[in-house]
UniProtKB/TrEMBL annotation:
SUPFAM superfamilies referenced in this protein's UniProt entry, alphabetically: S-adenosyl-L-methionine-dependent methyltransferases
Keywords from the UniProt entry: Methyltransferase, Transferase
GO biological process: methylation
Name of the protein in its database record: Methyltransferase type 11
Residues covered by the Methyltransferase type domain: 45-140
Organism expressing this protein natively: Ktedonobacter racemifer DSM 44963
Transferase is among the record's keywords: yes
Length: 254
């Protein structure tokens, strides 16, 4: 499999999203639970891709701006906006600096399944801090770092009560990796694996206070596709807000 960027696989990813029930049936309900009412909120969809999350939030009354690195995904997002005008603005840029976005522009920020594609997590949380108003919130969704470590695999168990398990390897090895599954995203663009403690410590280091987390179970259709999801969550969603306290300076990784 040739290694690619999201810009190279924009059309393929757009199709992939529409075929996988996990996005609309698992991620979206979890995201909306953590985001809450959005009427009147000014929200950044960071690393928005083709904009499906931005559209869901805008349809519910939020004013949304999406930022992404990949011009081809932004062109798709813009095309969806032309088909169904929702007032969403799109900006091309790097989430690690978010230079096209102003200080304190947003009341909230969402980042769905994208922190794993961005090399510098601390820089990204610092960008989110900069663009949020005081007290602003961040909700992000990531593959569950405890169960989606490099080359983790489903395994058959002999226990009829729990027929599937998961072998987790390489948890402490924080690095970019590429899966060998030819049907997935990770074999194409890779994934930066980080420990759960790294996400939580870096969030705190950027001045965020944890509010709530979700480890959603599958919808019926998702459980049919991935039966192991009945036993083990593969997603983690986190809500945090900017705290007034002093920003921790030197919280190290791990
Ligand atoms: C798995 S896709 C998720 C896209 C969208 N949030 C969704 O749920 O479909 C990851 C996205 O991260 C974007 N991305 C990767 N690195 C980025 C960066 N440094 N700054 C902004 N976007 C980036 C990619 O272009 C891609 O759209």
């Amino acid at each position: 499999m040739t290694r690619a960027s999201y810009n190279d696989i924009a059309q393929w990813y757009d199709q992939f999203l529409r075929e996988r029930p996990v996005y609309m049936e698992v991620i979206l309900p979890g995201l909306l639970t953590l985001v809450g009412e959005v009427e009147g909120e000014v929200i950044c969809d960071l690393a928005c891709g083709q904009g499906w999350v931005a559209r869901e939030l805008a349809r519910r009354g939020a004013q949304v701006i999406g930022l992404d690195l990949a011009p081809n995904l932004l062109a798709l997002a813009q095309r969806y906006e032309e088909q169904e005008p929702l007032g969403i603005g799109y900006v091309q840029g790097d989430a690690q600096r978010a230079e096209g976005l102003s200080d304190h522009q947003f009341t909230g920020c969402v980042c769905v399944m994208a922190l794993i594609n961005i090399p510098d997590l601390q820089a990204t949380f610092q960008s989110v801090r900069r663009i949020l108003k005081p007290g602003g919130w961040l909700v992000f969704a990531i593959p569950h770092p405890c169960f989606e470590s490099p080359h983790a695999q489903w395994t058959s168990l002999s226990d009829p009560e729990h027929p599937l398990g998961r072998t987790v390897t390489g948890y402490f090895d924080e690095r970019q990796w590429f899966s060998s599954n030819p049907d997935g995203v990770r074999s194409r663009v890779g994934d930066y694996h980080r420990m759960l403690s790294t996400y939580l410590n870096q969030l705190a280091a950027a001045g965020f206070a944890l509010e709530r987390t979700l480890e959603p179970g599958p919808s019926d259709r998702q459980a049919e596709r991935v039966p192991g999801n009945r036993e083990i969550p593969t997603l983690l969603l986190i809500r945090a807000h900017l705290s007034d306290g002093p920003q921790a300076e030197n919280i190290s990784r791990g």
